[in-house]
Each structure stands twice: as structure tokens, then as C-alpha cells.
Amino acid sequence: MSFNNLDQLYRQVIMDHYKNPRNKGAIEDGSVTVDMNNPTCGDRIHLTMNVEDGIVTDAKFDGEGCSISMASASMMTQAIKGKNMEDAIKLSQVFSDMMLGNDYPDDVDLDDIEALQGVAKFPARIKCATLSWKAMEKGLQDQK
Amino acid sequence: MNAKELKKYFPILDQEVNGHPLVYLDSAATSQKPVQVIEALEHYYRYANSNVHRGVHTLGNRATDLYEGAREKVRKFINAASTKEIVFLRGTTTALNLVAQSYGRANVKEGDEIVITMMEHHSNIIPWQQLAKATGATLKYIPLQEDGTLSLEDVRKTVTPNTKIVSVMMVSNVLGTINPIADITKIAHENGAVMVVDAAQAAPHMKVDVAQLNCDFLAFSGHKMCGPTGIGVLYGKQALLEKMEPIEFGGEMIDFVGLYESTWKELPWKFEGGTPIIAGAIGLGAAIDFLTEVGMDAIEQHEHKLAAYAMDKVTEIPGISVFGPKRGKDRASVVTFNLDDVHPHDVATVLDAEGIAVRAGHHCAQTLMKWCKVSATARASFYLYNTEEDIDRLAASLLKTKEYFSDVF
């Protein structure tokens, strides 16, 4: 079964993250907690992170949302674990550029996240993809 | 009426979206506009554009006649006693806020109650929340039956002699429930409360008769009933409106202005501060002409049939859950549903790829979503230009959506 263009959006790796989310849950006594929602559609994320000496040592998410928002959150937590705060925030900005269809530096290792590139072609879904990243960025900016 | 013929009056519907003929099933969010309305707006701007109520010049008179003529059309459409009872505002939200801030602030005090229902749109919740917070009054909710309807017994239990305002939607934008407004009004009045009606989802689809409902205030929006955006109506009983203070002050609404004191124009203009929504009102007047020519009874019957057809077609898809009154029960032409564990955003994206426009999200009813125990739903809503073929397309695409998501998983 195929729909025009839809396969660009619903890539296998996205569906895998949606069905088998990585880092789902909450860190008890996490050093950073962020709740964010998307008031226009009801998507909601509860993000907890541990930051030690400027390094994101752990990240977990809980929430409700569509395949794109939940897969994106799963990929985001996977990507930032072990990164220092600067790099995590930088990655969020790269992701934002990717969603807006802007150029972004090609020296950044995107790994699974690259699969979300197709979202840029579905303007109504960009906010779904960026919710968890905005939450992460806000949480880390507050730590600075 | 013949929906296929009517569709021809709506130029926007004659297009392809993502390679498929457009099927527009989001009229509860906003309706499409017939050429009659588009032309009325164009005619106004080409022939009569001018400010109202002040021009000695000819264009000023034309604009004023068209604007006030639209008010008379609205009066007749809802069977109000006088055009003094018809206030042009931006939309339902603005109208409900005017009642809450003007009538509410003057008449509600600590210990009083404001009663609404669990199915309200945010625009009929937040103004009352704010009023309750500001006055120390209590906001109470009439609960829902399992099928998303109201029982009059619950209304009687919730409304008490301490209740000052009861505000209820006439038709639910999510559940499709049609509420017994005349009966609720009676209960409100027996307890000495005023009755406010959010008719945003009713006025476009069925005969709304304020004399028969006997409500005190009623609000609706032009854009959901073939009119332009940015125009809405507050109906209020004259005796109540007379006593109410404006909440917007400035040009257009004044009678005499002194250095330290001013007086207001008479009804309805004292509530229309600033240059009014002239083109919007004229467009709404044209929409009312169009709807009246088709016939509100005919529209209601057509949608009734569509709703029943959609309920049959949609509920037979395996894995579908539909919210609101069950199949066979009286309901408005709104079908809100979820499909297995496919998130409604994903459903809406796949339907869009098929050229079908539906709404996904919380439909400005977060408290109702909690009651439904979901965070979001998909909603197909119909209007006079929709046909059974549109619903067939929806049902077929929902089946494809289901298959697509079982494939990609």
C-alpha cells in the first residue's frame, strides 16, 4: 500500500522509533525537568534529563502525541545522551534548520534523525517534530 | 435541495488537492464561501466602500444602508424582536466575552454560581472561568451522559437559585450533540438565572429562533455559515442590553463626549466601538440570503441524512471508535472518531494526501477531550455542499489509512 509522498514522511526508522520508543519514561530526581505542549493539537511531552559537569548523562521522555512527535522525541533523547550542553543545543538548532528547509552544517552526525527530513515537506507536521527539541533546548538553556 | 448543484456555487471546492478532487470535511472549523458572498464583498469594496453613520456623502449612505440592511437580515434570520438586539462583533468568542465582562461583572458576585457543561468549546469556558475568578463566584459544570448528551435531571441538579448565568452550546462541535436549549432556558429562568447560548455550530445548520428558545443572549460566527471571517453576532434581549455597559470605548459608540464624562449611543451601536466590521456584516447578510434561499429546513434535513449515512459508513470500519450520540440517535453532522492506535494527526495527514480535509486535535475542547479519555481525535464535519460521495471517499480512505499503518508497522 502506498500513498504519494507519504513514504517520505513515514520512514521505516520513524515508525520503529514510534513503535519502540527509546528512553521512554522519567528519570526520578532528574536534574532538569521540562513540560511542554502544543496547544493547537494537544501533543504533550514530559522531558527529564540529568546534567553533570555540563554533560547530558541521561534523558527520558513521556508524553502523548502522533507518530512524528513521539519518534522525534525518542530520537532526540538518543542523540543528546553523552553530549555536552553546547553540542545538544547546537543539534537542536540544526534540527530546526532541517525542519525549516534551511541549509545546515553537514559535519553534524544526525544518524536516525536524518529520517525526519521528510517532515519539512509537510508544514502542518513540523511543530509535531520540533516539540521535544524545543523542550530540550529550553531545559538546557535554563541550566546555563 | 441538491447538494451537487449547490457545490457549484463554491468555487474553492472545484480544485484538486494532492492529485485528488478536494473533499472538504472541516466545515465545523470554518465553512466555504459561495460566489454570492464573495461577490457581495467585491461589490461593497468596488461600489460603496465608505465609513458608516457619518457620511453626508453618497458612498457613506450606501455603506450605512448595506451595513444596517445586514443587521435586519440577521434579525429576521434568528427571529429577534428588533435590530436593537443585534450587535455586530468579531465572532462568537468576542460576543461571549462581552456578556461575561459586561453583564457578568455587573450581576455576578461572590457566592453566586455560573453554570456551563462538560462539552463546551474553550470560548464558552474561559470567559466564565475569568469571571468566576474576578468575582469569587463558583463555576459549575453540568456532567454528560455516557453517550455525550445532557440529561435535564442533571441540569436541574446543577442549576440552583444561586445561579446567575447558565451558558450552554446549542450543538457540540465535537460530539454532534444537539442540546435541548428551550428546556434548559426554562430551568435557568425558574432559578432566576439568565440563559446564554453558544450557537456557533447551530446557526449554520438549523433554524435558530430566539423567540422560541426564549434565551437571553445568543452568539454565533459568520464564517461558519458561509460568511466571511471576522464577523459575528451577539443577540441579547433589549431590556438586558439596555442596562449593560459597553466594554470597548472610543469612536462610533459615543453620543456626547465631554472632557471628563461621555454618554453612549443607543442600542445596538453602544457596543460597536471603532469603525465597525462593515464588509464582514454585508458578507454575512449575503450568506444569510443564500442560506435562506436554500432553506434552513432543507439544510437541516440534508445534513441529518448525511450524518446518519456517515455514522453508518464510518462505524462499520473495523477499529473505529466514534464519540457522541450513537448511530441512529439524533445528532448534528459532525463525526468525531479515532482509528485503532493510529494517532489522529497521522490519520489527517494520510487523508490529506488523498485530498480529504478533516480536523485533528482537541477541537478547542480540552476539558471534553479529558472526558472522552483521549488527548486528540479526528473529526469530519459536513455542510450543505457535502454529498454521500464525499463520505464514501472518506470511508474508503480511512480503510486505506488503516492498511497503510498496519503495513508500515
Please specify the SSE layout and strand pairing.
The complex is a heterodimer of chains A (144) and B (409).
Chain A: H1 6-9, H2 12-19, E1 32-38, E2 43-52, E3 55-64, H3 67-80, H4 85-100, H5 126-143
Antiparallel strand pairs in A: 1-2, 2-3
Chain B: H1 3-7, E1 16-17, E2 20-21, E3 23-24, H2 35-48, H3 58-78, E4 86-89, H4 92-107, E5 113-117, H5 126-135, E6 138-142, H6 152-158, E7 163-169, H7 181-190, E8 194-198, H8 210-213, E9 217-221, E10 232-236, H9 238-243, E11 254-257, E12 262-264, H10 278-294, H11 296-315, E13 320-322, E14 334-339, H12 344-353, E15 356-357, E16 359-361, H13 366-372, E17 377-381, H14 388-408
Parallel strand pairs in B: 3-15, 5-6, 5-7, 7-8, 8-9
Antiparallel strand pairs in B: 1-2, 4-10, 9-10, 11-12, 13-14, 14-17, 16-17
Radius of gyration of CA atoms of chain B, rounded to a whole number = 22 Å
Proportion of residues in extended strands of chain B: 15-25%
Reported for the largest beta sheet of chain B, the result is:
7 strands, mixed
Structural class of chain A: alpha+beta
Whole-number average pLDDT of chain B? Answer: 96
**Biggest sheet of chain A: strands side by side, in what order?**
1-2-3
Number of strands of chain A: 3
Distance between the termini of chain A: 48 Å
Looking at how many chains there are and whether they match, the oligomeric state comes to: heterodimer
The percentage of residues in β strands of chain A lies in 15-25%
Give average pLDDT of chain A, whole number. Answer: 92
Largest Cβ-defined interface: A-B, 26 and 24 residues
Assign a percent range to the helix content of chain A.
Answer: 40-55%
Task: Give the overall shape of chain A, derived from the CA principal axes.
Answer: globular
Number of helices of chain A: 5
Low-confidence stretches of chain B: none
- Total helix count of chain B? 14
Q: Any idea what the shape of chain B is?
A: globular
